[in-house]
Design brief:
Number of strands of chain B: 11
Largest sheet of chain A: 6 strands, mixed
Structural class of chain A: mainly beta
Number of helices of chain B: 0
Strand content of chain B: over 45%
Largest sheet of chain B: 7 strands, mixed
Order of helices and strands of chain B: EEEEEEEEEEE
Oligomer: heterodimer
Number of helices of chain A: 0
Helix content of chain B: under 10%
Shape of chain B: globular
Radius of gyration of chain B: 13 Å
Amino acid sequence: GENVEQHPSTLSVQEGDSAVIKCTYSDSASNYFPWYKQELGKGPQLIIDIRSNVGEKKDQRIAVTLNKTAKHFSLHITETQPEDSAVYFCAADYSSASKIIFGSGTRLSIRP
Amino acid sequence: NAGVMQNPRHLVRRRGQEARLRCSPMKGHSHVYWYRQLPEEGLKFMVYLQKENIIDESGMPKERFSAEFPKEGPSILRIQQVVRGDSAAYFCASSPGAVGAEAFFGQGTRLTVV
């Protein structure tokens, strides 16, 4: 079925350390994997995405990796800062069903 | 270029009333998605629309809920005879193409049923 699992549900890291969030998906036909950041009281904001024809993508302190064989993809945030504190959602497209399915979210807290 | 605009931002309805939520997509975007988010939970897909067409409504309850995206004007999510369990944040996202194109979200409408 259509399912995206996300771990961990909460994550606390020291400022300056790295944070990693992992997701798995079930549809082998999925080709598009966006990541969203949601701050309190706001809508989700697209921060980075990756497509199935690449294994890794970087944008400054943020990187995503994709393992299509294992159906895993991960978000890596390096040199974390207080403003990185938010809820992060992974997602995958289910092209056969014309929709994007979201993981359950990871609440990231950065300790000063 | 304005982002995805949703209104109202907050909506209070009494049980049994109707709620109408509006979403104006980004300029040039003809694809709209609606999601529901309960407090402390993730985003649950409701419906995917293109101009004048419902493409996928598999996540929308069969009764009381409807959505449209007319040729002119915003997309509308309508909830009839609201119940307390409908209280949630409803988010709209738009994209320039089908699934696989980047989707951008609005700020959401927070519906409270009293």
